[in-house]
Amino acid sequence: MSCHESVAALKKKLDAKVAAMRDEVKGIIKDHGQKKISEVTIEQAYGGARGVKCMVTETSALDPMEGIRFRGYSIPELQEKLPRAKGGEQPLPEGLFYLVLTGELPTNDDAAAISKAWRAHETLPPYVTKMLDAMPTTTHPMTQFSLGILAMQNESVFVKAYQKGMKKTEYWDPTLEDAMNLLARLPVLAAYVYRRSYHGGKHIPPADKNLDWGGNLAHMMGVENPEFKELMRLYLTIHADHEGGNVSAHTTHLVGSALSDVYYSLSAGINGLAGPLHGLANQEVLRWIMDVKAKLGGGVPTKEQLEKFLWDTLNSGQVIPGYGHAVLRKTDPRYTAQQQFAQKYMPNDELFRIVKMIFDAAPDILMKHGKAKNPWPNVDAHSGQLLVHYGVTEYDFYTVLFGVSRAMGVLASLVWDRALGLPIERPKSVTTEWIKGEIKKG
Ligand code: HAX
Question: For residue 114, how many other CB atoms are within 10 A of its CB?
Fold first, then answer.
C-alpha cells in the first residue's frame, strides 16, 4: 500500500463513522440538550474550572483513581493489545494513533500503514531548518519546536480548501491530511532541535524507511541502543493523550475551534505544554534531582538527606515537580509503566534508585504538608531518569519528546472536533463585581 493509499484508507474508515457519530450527537443534543451534567461553584470559577464538565473529547477519558483509558483501553491493556515492532515488546505509537483516531484497535497492517505514510512525508521544508538555524542554539528547545511547527503553517491543506470554499461537513478531511503531514515531520523536527542544540548541529539523516516512527526518532537523536528505541515507543504511546481538559489538549482544541489549522492549533498547545506545571515538569524533575546530587557532591542521598531536600523545597514555597495532579488521586499508571520499564532494563541504575527513594518519601511529606490534593507521582516523575540512562542527559529537551507524543492525541481530537462540527469555544466570563451581586441576592 502506498502512503497516499494508506491516508485514503484512513479517510474511508473515518468517513463511515463520521456521519453516524454526527447524527448520534445531533440526536443527543435534540432530545437531551437541557439535561444538566455539571454545575459551577464560585470556587470553580476562580479555580481553573476544576471538575466542571463542559467539553467533549472522544479520544480518551481520565478516572481519578484508575488513570487514563485511551478509547476505553488502559495502559497495561494497550501494552498487551497494540502492534509492536519486530522483536519488540512495547506498543507502537502508530497503533495508538490509529486507536484514538478511529476508536478501533489496529491490526499489524493498520499500524504499518500509518508508519509508512508518516515515514514517507517526514522531510522538513528547507525554510524550517533555515529559520531554526537563525535562532541562538540556547533558545529553549520547546520554543524551537513550537516555532518549527508554526513555520510549516504555510503547508496547510485545510487553509487552501477553506479558501476555495468547502462545506462544514467536509472540514475534517483536510484536517486529517494536515494532521498526518504534521505528525510525519515531528520526529525529524524534534531530532533537528536536539542535534542543533546539543550536538553542534551534526544532524543524523532518517533511517531506512522500514524503521518505525519512534525508532527513527531514537536513531536521528543519535541513540542506537535498541532498548532506547523500545523506550521511545513506550514513551510516545503513553504521553499521547490525557482527556480534553489539560492545558495542551484544551489549548489545541480552543485555538482549533476558531478554525485555525492544525499548525496554529498544535503550536499553541505546545506552548501550553512548555509550562512547568504541565509538561515542563519532566525537565524540572531532573533539574531538582541534579540539584540535590550537586549539593551533596554526587551519589545517592540518604533517606534523611532526601527528606530534608523535599521539606526545603516545600518550605521555600516551591512545588515538588512530578508530584500532584489536577484530576488524578492515585499513582499515575504512566509512572507505573515507566517504573516497570526501568525495573526490567536498568534495575541497578543510580538515578532509578533515587526516583524510587523520592516515591517512598514524597507522598508522606506532601500529606504532612497538607496542601496538595494528590500526593502521588505523575507521568513526569519518572521519564527523565529513563532518558538519562541512555545518555540523553540534556533535560531542557525532555518536554519536546512529550510534545511529539501529545500531538497524536490532540490532533486526532481536532479531527473529531471538525467531524462533529463543534462550534467556536466561548465560555461566559463574569466579574468579581457580578459574583458579589449574586452572593447578595442569595
Ligand atoms: N508540591 C507542592 N505543592 C503542591 C504540589 C506539589 N507537587 N501539588 C500541589 N501543590 C499545592 C498547590 O500548589 C496548591 O497550593 P496553593 O493552595 O498554595 O495554591 C495546593 O497544593 C492545592 O493544589 P491541588 O489542588 O492539589 O493541585 P492543582 O490541581 O491546583 O494543580 C498541579 C495540579 C499538577 C499543577 C500541581 O499538583 C503541581 O504543581 N505539581 C507539580 C508540578 C507537576 O508535576 N506538574 C505536572 C503535572 C502532570 C502533567 O500535566 N504533566 O504534563
Answer: 30
Sole residue written with cell 489496529: 106
Condensed to tens digits (0 to 9), the pLDDT of residues 356-382 reads: 999 999 999 999 999 999 999 999 999
Active-site residue, 278 included: yes
- Supply 405's cell numbers: 507524543
**HSE (side-chain half, CA atoms, 13 Å) at 252:** 34
Cβ atoms of 296 and 305 within 8 Å: the answer is yes
User: Exposed e or buried b for every residue in 58-94, given b needs 16+ CB within 10 A?
Assistant: bbbbbeeeebbbbbebebeebbeebbbbeebebbbbb
Per-residue pLDDT, 349: 97
Please name the residues in contact with 311: beta carbons below 8 A apart, sequence gap of 6 or more: 365
What are the domain boundaries of the chain?
A: 281-389
DSSP 194-226: HHHHHSTT-------TTS-HHHHHHHHHT---H
Cβ contact 268:436 at 8 Å: no
pLDDT mean over 71-84: 98
DSSP annotation of 125 = P
Ligand 1 centroid to residue 324 C-alpha, Å: 5
Q: How many CB atoms lie within 10 A of CB 49?
A: 16
H helical segments located in 322-395: 333-345, 350-369, 380-389
Residues 226-235: tens digit of each pLDDT? 999 999 999 9
Residue 199 annotated as catalytic = no
Find, among 385, 377, 396, 273, the residue nearest to 334 by Cα.
377
Ligand 1, atom 32: closest residue by C-alpha: 325
- pLDDT tens digits, one per residue of 85-94: 999 999 999 9
Residue 157 phi/psi, 5-degree rounding, is -75, -35
Q: Which protein residue has the closest C-alpha to ligand 1 atom 15?
A: 371
**Packing angle, helices 213-221 and 226-238, rounded to 10:** 120
Q: Give pLDDT tens digits for 91-136.
A: 999 999 999 999 999 999 999 999 999 999 999 999 999 999 999 9
208 annotated active-site: no
Which cell numbers hold the place of 243?
A: 482527556
Whole-number Å distance between alpha carbons of 142 and 40? 34
Domain 281-389: CATH class, spelled out: mainly alpha
Ligand 1 pocket (Cβ < 6 Å) reads 246, 277-279, 281, 314, 319-326, 371-374, 378-380
Which ligand 1 atom is the nearest neighbour of the CA of 323? Answer: 7
Which of the listed residues 359, 371, 382 should we mutate to test ligand 1's pocket, taking the one with most ligand atoms within 8 A of CB?
A: 371
